[in-house]
Structure formats: structure tokens, C-alpha cells
């Protein structure tokens, strides 16, 4: 949990710390907030009174305490504000309308077609956001902003995508400004995997773990880090690119410029290519007949389902991919000494349990600290939604819960 600071001039920061404590607790007393944040009882009391007046927090019942009078429980008022989260993956767009408690109120998805120039794509996002709000019956005035999770690398402060490897021809795209123009709402842009770990912190498994790594399997392979209760972003705010750890020295070239990256051998395209190569070489199994008729019918989703059902070719390829991921995860755990590894993202599909068990087995048998304090490996309960929910929560973080490091370094990071 973030600690408050009992110093003058940090009022808005302490306010965000208190609101953050209420948000992730699901119900908490003033005394517990003081214990959790290190703020004095008086400071907590003043901030809570203001949050109550603003309607962001409400009192909701009480619980007995040892000795004194019963303690009033505080919860966020979910309908006090909304945010739209958009997860932009080169394979598709995913929209979530979330309330202040982090609950998805309404979601929608649409494919990204071949004509995705930045202007056309952001115009389409604007249309989709208006439709989402209309369907949910939420007026635009109640929406605090849009959080947009994009493939990296991004220049986060300016909301610019910088030569995303999977979107050839995009160069430097000020996607935050374009989306702001298309929607007339405030827009916060972040890296997709960082957004996913923020979503996990807010609404998933990250509520209880202090240090976790999030391994995100989508069109590419990404990651995010929560270290000692704080999102770790790195110098250029692009930390956690686990997909670009070398898995096969001297292996196939990766779009990032490195060789044999985890992403180059574990992404859906690589899985499909590996299965097709074996089927073309005469391998049998349940996919062979479909492959002979039309190779395009043996796609990633079908391969994952076949692997889960025990097809030998699909299971072998997914097993090899899981082993590469497991090797990377052992390295990550050894470097960072984590409590938890969360696996998420749309590309897990029906093979999710194969990945989880292979990685868990590797961490339990090969990680440096395994006998001292084994790290847990778990599937995200909000797997497919994590990046979009996290993107929505960026809006609340920007509006109510700025990271103190961001506040303190704002002057130095901006050009
Ligand atoms: Zn790479």
C-alpha cells in the first residue's frame, strides 16, 4: 500500500492515497486507513470528510471494534464517476465503461481492419465510445475521461506512439491528441501491458500481492510490474517488455531488432507457423485433415483448443512455447524476487492451463528462492479485460490518484 506523508503541501497527494486505500479495500474504516497509509487519524478524518462531501466516498454500515465504539465502513460511491478504457491491440479494439469502483459496466469489441490510418482509427474509436455511453445510459458529463492502452513503445507524457513494431508505417503518432479531438474528452495514454498490471492491481489479483509481474499474451508478448505496491515504469516508462527477453540465442529476428526474442517464438503468428511447418512435413493428429484442405483453417484459436484436447502436434508446439515462457519467468522471478506472476491476455485462450502449469512447475523447481518463499503463478481472473479496465483506471488515477513520483518528476520529464 502507498504510504502517505504527514507534511504540509502534500494535501492532494494524501487525498489520492486515502481514496486509493478505499478503492482497493472494498470497505475500510478510518482507523484502518490511518494504519495502512501512515497518516495521522486527524488527517484521515479531514480528507474523508471532504471525499464524503464530494460524493466520491460513502459511509456504509459499521463493524464492531475492540473496546471503543463501532467503526464506520467507507466505500467508494461507484456511480460518482465513470471512465472509458480502450485497449488498442493491432488485432482488435476493446472498450470498457468502468465505474469508480473499477467494475466494468459495459464492454464492446471491434476488429482493427487493414485501413487503420491513425486518423480513421481514432475517428472510429470516437464513434464506438459514443455508442457505448448511449447503450449504458451514461451521459458524457459523468465521464471523467478516456484511458487508452496502446502497444509500446510510447512516449507516455505526450501520449505519442513511437514506431510500434506491429503497425508498420505509423512512425510517431500523437494518438492521445487525435482521440481527444475525436471525442472532446480528456485522454490518458499508457503502454498496454502497464495498463493491464494497473487493471490487475485495481480489480484483479493484484489487490493482495505487493510485488507481481504480469505476463501479457496478445498479438505480441508484453508485461508489467508492480513492485512493493507501486507500478514500476522505468526510465522511459516502458519497463516490463518481457517479450523481448532472448529465448533462443541467435534465433529468428524479432520485430524489435533483437534475435530470438520470447515474442518472436511465442506469439500467435509464431505458433501458427510452427504448427503449419510440422503439418506440411507430414505430421498427423486432429489438425492434419483440415490443414490439407485449407491451411488458413488451422489458426491460433483452433491450435490452442487442439492442444488442450491433447492433439500431439498442437500440444507439442504449445508445450515448447510454454517452456520458453517458463524460462523467461524464472529469470524475471530471480531478478525481482516476486510474490506472484499473473498470466493474462487474449492469446492464452483454451491453452491457458497448459501455460500456467508449465510456468508454475518451472518456478517451483528452478527459481532461486523456491525453498525460501515460492512465488505463485496464477491466471488473471480478468484476463481478457485487464488492459481495458486498467486503461479506464488511468483516468481515475490521473483525476484522483496521481503517483507521487509522477508529481515530483513532472517538471523534469516533460520536454
Ligand atoms: Zn524482440
Architecture overview:
- With 415 residues, the chain is an alpha/beta fold.
- It has three domains: 11-76, Orthogonal Bundle (Arc Repressor Mutant, subunit A); 80-198 and 386-413, 2-Layer Sandwich (Nucleotidyltransferase, domain 5), CATH 3.30.420.40; 209-380, ATPase, nucleotide binding domain (Nucleotidyltransferase, domain 5, 2-Layer Sandwich).
- Helix content is 42%, strand content 20%.
- It has helices spanning 11-25, 30-37, 41-53, 118-136, 175-183, 192-203, 262-266, 268-280, 288-293, 300-308, 312-336, 352-366, 386-400, 404-413, and strands at residues 57-63, 71-76, 82-89, 92-99, 104-111, 143-150, 154-155, 160-162, 172-173, 187-191, 212-217, 221-227, 230-232, 340-344, 376-379.
- Strands 5-4-3-6-10 form a five-stranded mixed sheet, sandwiched between helices. Strands 13-12-11-14-15 form a five-stranded mixed sheet, with helices on both faces. A three-stranded antiparallel sheet has the order 7-8-9.
- β12 and β13 (230-232) form a beta hairpin.
- α1 packs across α3 (41-53), α2 (30-37) crosses α3 and α8 (268-280) packs antiparallel against α11.
- The radius of gyration is 23 Å and the shape is globular.
- Bound molecules: zinc ion.
- Zinc ion (ZN) binds at residues 244, 254, 256, 258, 261, 263-264.
Amino acid at each position: 500500500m502507498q504510504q502517505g506523508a504527514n507534511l504540509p503541501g502534500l494535501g492532494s497527494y494524501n487525498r489520492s492515497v486515502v481514496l486509493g486505500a478505499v478503492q482497493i479495500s472494498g470497505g475500510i474504516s478510518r482507523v484502518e486507513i490511518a494504519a495502512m497509509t501512515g497518516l495521522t487519524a486527524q488527517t484521515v478524518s479531514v480528507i474523508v470528510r471532504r471525499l464524503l462531501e464530494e460524493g466520491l466516498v460513502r459511509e456504509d454500515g459499521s463493524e464492531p471494534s475492540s473496546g471503543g465504539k463501532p467503526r464506520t465502513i467507507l466505500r467508494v460511491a461507484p456511480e460518482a464517476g465513470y471512465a472509458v478504457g480502450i485497449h488498442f491491440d493491432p488485432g482488435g479494439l476493446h472498450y470498457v465503461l468502468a465505474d469508480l469502483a473499477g467494475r466494468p459496466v459495459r464492454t464492446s469489441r471491434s476488429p482493427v481492419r487493414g485501413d487503420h490510418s491513425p486518423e480513421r482509427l481514432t475517428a472510429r474509436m470516437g464513434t464506438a465510445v459514443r455508442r457505448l455511453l448511449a447503450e449504458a445510459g451514461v451521459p458524457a458529463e459523468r465521464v471523467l475521461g478516456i484511458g487508452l492502452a496502446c502497444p509500446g513503445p510510447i512516449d507516455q507524457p505526450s501520449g505519442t506512439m513511437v514506431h510500434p513494431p506491429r503497425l508498420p508505417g505509423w512512425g510517431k503518432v500523437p494518438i492521445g491528441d487525435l482521440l481527444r479531438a475525436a471525442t472532446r474528452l480528456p485522454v490518458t495514454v499508457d503502454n498496454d501491458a502497464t495498463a493491464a498490471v494497473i487493471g490487475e492491481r485495481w480489480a484483479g489479483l493484484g489487490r493482495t500481492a505487493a510485488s507481481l509481474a504480469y505476463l501479457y499474451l496478445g498479438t505480441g508478448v508484453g508485461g508489467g510490474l508492480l513492485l512493493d505496491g507501486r507500478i514500476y515504469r522505468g526510465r522511459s516508462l516502458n519497463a516490463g517488455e518481457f517479450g523481448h527477453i532472448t529465448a533462443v540465442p541467435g534465433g529468428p529476428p524479432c520485430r524489435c531488432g533483437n534475435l530470438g526474442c520470447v515474442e518472436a517464438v511465442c506469439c500467435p503468428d509464431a505458433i501458427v507457423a510452427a504448427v503449419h511447418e510440422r503439418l506440411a512435413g507430414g505430421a498427423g493428429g486432429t489438425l492434419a485433415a483440415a490443414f490439407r484442405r485449407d491451411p488458413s483453417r488451422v489458426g491460433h484459436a483452433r491450435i490452442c483448443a487442439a492442444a488442450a484436447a491433447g492433439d500431439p502436434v498442437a500440444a507439442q508446439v504449445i508445450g515448447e512455447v510454454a517452456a520458453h515462457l517458463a524460462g523467461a519467468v524464472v529469470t524475471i522471478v530471480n531478478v525481482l524476487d516476486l510474490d506472484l506472476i499473473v498470466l493474462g491476455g487474449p492469446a492464452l485462450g483454451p491453452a491457458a492451463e497448459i501455460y500456467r502449469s508449465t510456468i508454475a512447475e518451472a518456478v517451483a523447481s528452478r527459481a532461486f528462492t523456491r525453498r525460501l518463499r515460492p512465488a505463485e503463478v496464477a491466471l488473471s481472473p480478468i484476463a481478457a479485460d485487464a488492459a481495458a479496465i486498467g486503461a479506464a483506471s488511468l483516468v481515475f488515477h490521473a483525476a484522483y490518484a496521481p503517483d507521487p513520483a509522477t508529481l515530483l518528476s513532472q517538471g523534469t520529464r516533460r520536454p
